Amino acid sequence: MEYRQLGRSDLTVSEISLGSWLTYGVGVEADASRACIEKALDLGINFFDTANAYGRGAAEEFLGETLGGIERSSYVLATKVFFPMSRNDRGLSAAQIHKQIDASLQRLRTDYVDLYQCHRYDRDTPLAETMQALTDVVREGKVRYVGISEWKAHQIQAALDMPDAVRIVSSQPQYSMLYRVPEKEVFPLCEKEGIGNIVWSPLAQGILTGKYAPDSPPPDDSRAASESMGQMMGRWRDDDVLEAVQKLKPIAEEAGLTMAQLALAWVLRKPVVSSAIIGATRPEQVEDNASASGVKLSDDVLAAIDEALAPVLI
Predict the structure, then answer these.
(1) What's the pTM value of the predicted model, to 2 decimals?
(2) CATH value at residue 218
C-alpha cells in the first residue's frame, strides 16, 4: 500500500480507503463487514470514511465497535454531517454541527475524528455560521481537520475566503472513468489551494468491475441485486454504459490488471487525488482493490480507456 498526504494537512492516508455507504451497519452482515475491515487493516489501508447519515448512525456504531480495540493513532477516521438524522436534525447550522459531532463521537467511541466533512452545501445556513462552528469544533479538539463533499468550486472558494476560519483540507467528489465532472473546476481549484481529494464511487458503484453485462440480470451476490444497496445505481445500469464498459476488459487484461484495479489506478493517476474510497462486501474485494495502489497506467492505456468510454462519459 502506498500513501499520500491529504492536502495541506499532516494526515497521511492510504491510496485506497474503505467507505461504509450502503454497506457496514446497513446492507452487509456484521461478520462479513468485520472481515472486510480486518482485511483492510492487514493490507495497510489506514483511512476509514463514514457519515452520521449512513443507516442513521448504524455505520458509525459499527465502525466504533469494530475499530474500538485498535490503537487510535494508527488509522485515520473521517465522518460527515448534513443529511437528516431526524425530522428536525439536518443541515450545517452551528447548533447541528455541535450536536452531530458529539453524537458521532459517541457512536464512533472516540474523542476526536481526524476529518469532519460537510456532506453537502447548506443553502439554508449562512456560510459564515457553518465555518465558525467548524472552527469551534477544531479548537475544542473534537475534530483535527475539516473537509467538504460535493461542493461546487465557487462554494469551496467562498469558504477559503472566510477570515479567521478553519481551512478546508479535503474535498470528496464523485469521480470515476465514467464521471469526470470534477476535472472541469473542482480539481483545478484544489490543485491551486492545496486541497486533497478523496473520491467516492471510483468504480461507479461496481459497474467498472465488469461484472454486469448488458441485457442480463445482475449476479445474485452483487450490489445491483440487493434491495438495500442497488437503488442508487441509476444510469450506470443502462445498456449503453454496460456495453462501453465491456470494451475495457481487453485493455485491463493486456495491462495485467483486473477491471477494478484498472478503474482505481485511473483515478489515482492524478496527484490531486489523495485516496479512492472503495465499498466492499467481501474481503477478497478489498484485497483486489488494494492491489491498485502504486499502479501506473501508460499513455496508450489511458488513450484506449478514453476511446472505449467516449460515448457515455459524463
Answers:
(1) 0.92
(2) 3.20.20.100
